[in-house]
């Protein structure tokens, strides 16, 4: 089907048209979540199935999938390929979600696509994420990418991205998140994440917990994935050293020992890098040849919003207790200068108590506030937070206004950690003029 056409957008109108198009797109987030693949498959069919025009590396997981995607992107680009990268959510600007060789989809291109295809999106009842996924996959085909790296949005089995037929599907660390959709146990959540494994396609099991690792393996076998590579069975990581400049580790594969360094900071960044390398290695052929160049290509890895340093500011989107604990471990390992103040805003439906407890292990002060872009129906109750922190005897101060909270934190700290959600980090980066994609 040919999309409806619209008049050309003049340069002076580009930004207003862009924001208008985004308002209509975000309006598709209203109502209950509607997981499933039928609508996005139909939409992509109307678009000519662009996702079949290039190979795809597909990544799911609770923690670590962003790092794994960033590693794959850097390795593939470093080998000279044109690479599409689809991630979510964004930090400052929506265009960060759809990137080709480090360049976001332009505002004009986003506006044109959304406007042209809006009648079809409405006819099919496409959700926000379905529309965005289709746009990204279509943009990659239009750009003639050699390969795409696609991050799962929510879960895996019923996520809109699961329409792809990847050359490799990898699942990173499993944790508690989105339990209202994915289940109340780690085993149930693992089952949903493992839904990206497909028959005859490489499956990589990256969770380091023996029980969850075994559960993911069972799902990969039931899906008839082949081959299947499993951490601690097909590769091991040890001798991990974390410093301000990154993470160095030893990777053992088939009796071969390699000493590697990723610029990403944190103990688990070694395991995330290993998952990305396993996906390349297991995919074979030219992909395995790229993996063999890891020493050369890994130094180019960048990941916005994860232990993202712009002294004295440190940004990390940790939005669950496990993520916050990882940030704290990294702070202590790197030896960030004290005193440390944390600016924290967590969405109401997250484990904000666990996040604050974790942050309190490193920060002398914690300023709780409200990020301006936090969804109105998910804003946490600062009265409740303040009362709880008082009972727990934690060093928490409440400053409702976000800009004032940032200024207050800066006045009395050598390091300011901004954390709790993508909204928190993105709003801070925007106000402090830190560009997420700057190298």
Provide structural commentary.
The protein has 439 residues and is of the alpha/beta class. It has two domains: 11-300, UDP-N-acetylmuramoyl-L-alanine:D-glutamate ligase (3-Layer(aba) Sandwich); 308-432, Mur ligase, C-terminal domain (Protein-Tyrosine Phosphatase, Chain A). Helix content is 40%, strand content 18%. The chain contains 16 helices and 17 strands. It has helices at 14-26, 38-46, 65-78, 107-124, 128-143, 179-182, 186-193, 210-222, 267-283, 285-291, 294-297, 321-334, 352-359, 382-392, 402-411, 422-432; strands at residues 56-60, 83-86, 98-100, 103-104, 147-151, 168-171, 202-205, 228-230, 236-243, 246-253, 256-262, 308-310, 313-316, 340-344, 365-368, 396-398, 415-419. The strands form three sheets. It has an eight-stranded mixed sheet with strand order 4-3-2-5-1-6-7-8, with helices on both faces. A six-stranded mixed sheet has the order 12-13-17-14-15-16, sandwiched between helices. A three-stranded antiparallel sheet has the order 9-10-11. Helix 1 (14-26) runs parallel beside helix 4, helix 7 runs parallel beside helix 8 and helix 12 runs parallel beside helix 13 (352-359). The longest helix is centred in the N-terminal third of the chain and has 18 residues, at 107-124. The protein is globular, with a radius of gyration of 21 Å. The relative contact order is 0.11. Residues 1-10 have low confidence and may be disordered.
């Amino acid at each position: 089907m040919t999309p409806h056409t619209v008049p050309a957008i003049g340069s002076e109108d580009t930004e207003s048209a862009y924001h208008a198009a985004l308002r209509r797109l975000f309006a598709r987030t209203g109502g209950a979540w509607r997981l499933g693949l039928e609508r996005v498959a139909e939409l992509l069919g109307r678009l000519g199935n662009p996702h079949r025009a290039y190979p795809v590396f597909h990544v799911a997981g609770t923690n670590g999938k962003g790092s794994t995607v960033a590693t794959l992107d850097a390795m593939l680009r470093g080998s000279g390929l044109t690479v599409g990268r689809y991630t979510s959510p964004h930090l400052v600007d929506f265009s960060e979600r759809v990137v080709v060789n480090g360049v976001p989809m332009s505002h004009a291109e986003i506006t044109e696509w959304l406007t042209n295809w809006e009648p079809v999106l409405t006819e099919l009842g496409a959700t926000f994420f379905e529309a965005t996924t289709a746009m990204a996959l279509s943009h990659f085909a239009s750009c003639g990418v050699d390969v795409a790296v696609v991050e799962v949005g929510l879960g895996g089995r019923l996520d809109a991205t699961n329409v792809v037929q990847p050359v490799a599907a990898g699942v990173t660390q499993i944790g508690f998140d989105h339990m209202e959709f994915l289940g109340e146990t780690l085993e149930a959540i693992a089952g949903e994440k493992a839904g990206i494994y497909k028959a005859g396609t490489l499956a990589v099991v990256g969770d380091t917990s023996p029980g969850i690792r075994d559960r993911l393996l069972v799902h990969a076998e039931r899906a008839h994935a082949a081959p299947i590579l499993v951490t601690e069975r097909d590769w091991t990581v040890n001798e991990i050293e974390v410093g301000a400049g990154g993470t160095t580790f030893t990777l053992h594969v088939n009796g071969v020992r390699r000493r590697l360094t990723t610029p990403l900071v944190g103990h688990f960044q070694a395991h995330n890098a290993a998952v990305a390398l396993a996906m390349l290695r297991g995919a074979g052929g030219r992909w395995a040849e790229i993996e063999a160049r890891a020493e050369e290509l890994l130094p180019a890895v960048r990941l916005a919003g994860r232990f993202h340093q712009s002294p004295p500011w440190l940004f990390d989107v940790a939005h669950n207790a496990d993520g916050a604990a990882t940030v704290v471990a990294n702070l202590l390992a790197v030896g960030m200068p004290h005193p440390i103040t944390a600016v924290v805003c967590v969405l109401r439906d997250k484990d904000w108590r666990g996040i604050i407890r974790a942050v309190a292990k490193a920060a002398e002060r914690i300023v709780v506030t409200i990020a301006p872009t936090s969804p109105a129906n998910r804003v946490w109750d600062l009265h409740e937070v303040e009362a709880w922190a008082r009972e727990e005897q934690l060093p928490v101060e409440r400053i409702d206004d976000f800009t004032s909270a940032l200024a207050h934190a800066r006045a009395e700290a050598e390091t300011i950690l901004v954390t709790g959600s993508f909204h928190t980090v993105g709003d801070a980066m925007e106000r402090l003029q830190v560009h997420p994609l700057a190298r």
